[in-house]
Specification:
124 residues, alpha/beta, globular
Length: 124
């Protein structure tokens, strides 16, 4: 029983290390959206929030491994605002994140989603 508790504690304590990013998503969002003259955290009538709303795009920001989630959100935001859906995919490890970029690219090209890649080096 002691070993189970120790193992559970070790797993619990190591979980934050797995999810660590170089910067918070909001840091990338503020930097990019400001540079592209957009509004951050634009609230829709249903209380959902668009990460960045520009004159032409409703944009969702996500880390590369969450590429699939970003697709649904961007399509919904585009529909609600009658703007082109957009995604800024955050790349912190280009070697590892390349497979996610390829997946997003295929779907984005098929469904008319504009996407940009934002690298952590852009914040340095």
């Amino acid at each position: 029983m002691k070993y189970v508790l120790v193992l559970a504690l070790l797993i619990f304590l190591s979980v934050p290390a797995w999810a660590k990013h170089l910067h918070k998503e909001s840091v990338y969002q503020m930097h990019w959206c400001s540079a592209n003259r957009g509004l951050t955290e634009y609230i829709l009538d249903d209380k959902t929030r668009i990460d960045c709303l520009t004159q032409t795009h409703a944009i969702e920001f996500d880390f590369a491994n969450k590429w699939a989630e970003s697709i649904g959100q961007s399509l919904y935001y585009g529909l609600k605002t009658q703007r082109t859906p957009g995604i800024v995919l955050i790349i912190e490890n280009p070697e590892k994140d390349g497979k996610y970029v390829k997946r997003l690219e295929q779907v984005a090209n098929k469904f008319g989603i504009t996407y940009w890649l934002m690298y952590s080096a852009e914040l340095d």
